[in-house]
Amino acid sequence: MLQNAYETLPNPVRRPLGAAAAYGAVIRGTEDPREIEYRVLARATALLDQAAQVDAGPTALSAAIHENRLVWIAFTADLAGENNSFDNALKARLVSLARWVFTESERVLRARQGVQPLIDVNRAVMAGLQPGITPATEMS
């Protein structure tokens, strides 16, 4: 029964369970992890952009917020993983940023506020994921 209910969910809400699954279908064996992170963040940001449009449907905002949360949950899980090589200070700043995203997401949903701050943060992180940017200089 759950499987049938799951199959009727629209994308982007339709996801397998687990933090790593937020990376979904964009994972390619030849892509660098930073490229994957950029792509999933770009997708979530595009959904937030669409949800901010006047003609967005009634579920667009909650679906976009949900997608964005999945991405940030996956980022947080990766930061906590044993194989993450970021220094502890950078990890702490990124986890703090993720906590802000979760809090801001709740505020947006409850108060039906604009999503622009979430979009801005996502774009800033995307800029840091661009080639030539090293993790040590991203959050300086």
Could you describe the 3D structure shown?
This protein has 140 residues and is an all-alpha fold. The protein has one domain. The chain contains 6 helices and no strands. Helix 2 runs antiparallel to helix 5. It is globular, with a radius of gyration of 15 Å. This is Flagellar biosynthesis regulator FlaF. Pfam families: FlaF (PF07309).
Helix segment tally: 6
- The number of E-state strands comes to 0
Series of H and E elements: HHHHHH
Q: Into which percent range does the helicity of residues fall?
A: 55-70%
First-last Cα distance: 49 Å
Mean pLDDT, rounded to whole units? 81
Structural class: mainly alpha
Whole-number count of domains: 1
Percentage of residues in DSSP E strands: under 5%
CA-based gyration radius: 15 Å
Overall shape: globular
Uncertain spans: 1-10, 13-20
Largest sheet: none
InterPro entries: FlaF
Pfam families: FlaF
Protein name: Flagellar biosynthesis regulator FlaF
Keywords: Cell projection, Cilium, Flagellum
Topology record:
Layout: H1 2-7, H2 33-51, H3 60-80, H4 88-111, H5 116-128, H6 135-138
Summarize the structure.
The chain has 140 residues and is an all-alpha fold. 62% of the residues lie in helices and 0% in strands.
Which key features would you list for this structure?
single chain; 140 residues; mainly alpha; disordered N terminus
